Amino acid sequence: MTEHHIPKRLMTLAYTASIPLMAGYALWLYAMGDYRDLLIPTFMTLLLMSALLMHIGQGVKSYLPRIILLCATYSVVLGAFYYQPQVSPIWLGLPITAAFLLLPLWAALLINIAVGPLWWMLPSVASAPPAIIVGYAALTLLLALPRWEHARRRALLRATDPNDSDCNAYHIDTLKERLHSEFQRAAMLNQQLAVLVLHLPQLDMAEEQFGHRAQSALLGALCGEVNSRCRDHDVLGRADSATFWLVLPDTSESGALLVRERLQRALSQRVLVETGQLEARIAACLPSRTEYFEHYVKRLEARGAALANV
């Protein structure tokens, strides 16, 4: 859950729009007679086409086309500064913004800090007034602060159940609020939404027979597997004593079933000292297009009760 998430449709739009923009820039250079500058944008247009195909295709890591798009942005801006000294330094904001949009916070900060001094080795940037340096640092901080604040708030919301401090799961009230917001967003944007209902039948028995330490080990195993196999914006919450909801925004039924299969396999391979092999019952539950939120929550609760009675 550490991957910086951007909706797939938005990324598809970004890759699609970047191709005509890059091709248009190459055509503009051709029309202006800057033939030596054509190589970089022309080559980057081909790379962006491959990035779009990688994004649409299956079995390709999502960060690969993002890296291509980011490299294309840096290469074009770098080429513009190198071949055209009269270019305004204000275009430095383009790669800075692209880094924060396409990369996790720490990676974007690292790249902008590392690349920052290199920009001033270019003649057009070196001759710029000192205010450009202040603007570069200010823009970096302004783009980093919202992402940092979002991460801080998520950390405050996690582990809200005082009895389960070892598990990064939302409390039921906070969970329903998050689910409601995702439910409304999916309805407004015509996106898909899926929820996995997870039941750990050993959880209550572990505390009764082996104490709170064994229960915490079970919770830690569940949350550890969810954290390592799910996206950053997926939400895990505790519905009752031994039942959890894993909210999967922008996820189809087939995607939810794949996540269920991965979690089922990973959890079944966890063996704890007190309880032995971890047992988990997982079911996928998707809302219908015409369903009200309250009815959907009741279906989730009924599904959890059914898993508990298996």
Task: Write up this protein.
The chain has helices at residues 8-32, 39-56, 63-83, 93-102, 105-119, 123-126, 131-157, 172-188, 202-210, 212-229, 253-268, 293-308, and strands spanning 193-199, 235-238, 243-249, 271-272, 276-277, 281-285. With 310 residues, it is an alpha+beta fold. It is elongated, with a radius of gyration of 24 Å.
* Dominant shape: elongated
Mean pLDDT level: 81
Strand line-up in the sheet with most strands: 2-3-1-6
Intertermini distance = 30 Å
- Class by SSE composition: alpha+beta
Largest sheet: 4 strands, antiparallel
Contiguous helical run count: 12
Q: Secondary-structure element sequence?
A: HHHHHHHHEHHEEHEEEH
Gyration radius over CA: 24 Å
Q: What ranges have pLDDT less than 50 throughout 5 or more consecutive residues?
A: 156-167
Helix content: 55-70%
Strand element count:
6
Q: How much of the sequence is in beta strands?
A: 5-15%
List the helices and strands and how they pair.
Layout: H1 8-32, H2 39-56, H3 63-83, H4 93-102, H5 105-119, H6 123-126, H7 131-157, H8 172-188, E1 193-199, H9 202-210, H10 212-229, E2 235-238, E3 243-249, H11 253-268, E4 271-272, E5 276-277, E6 281-285, H12 293-308
Antiparallel strand pairs: 1-3, 1-6, 2-3, 4-5
Helix pairs in contact: 1-2, 2-3, 3-4, 4-5, 4-7, 5-7, 9-10, 10-11
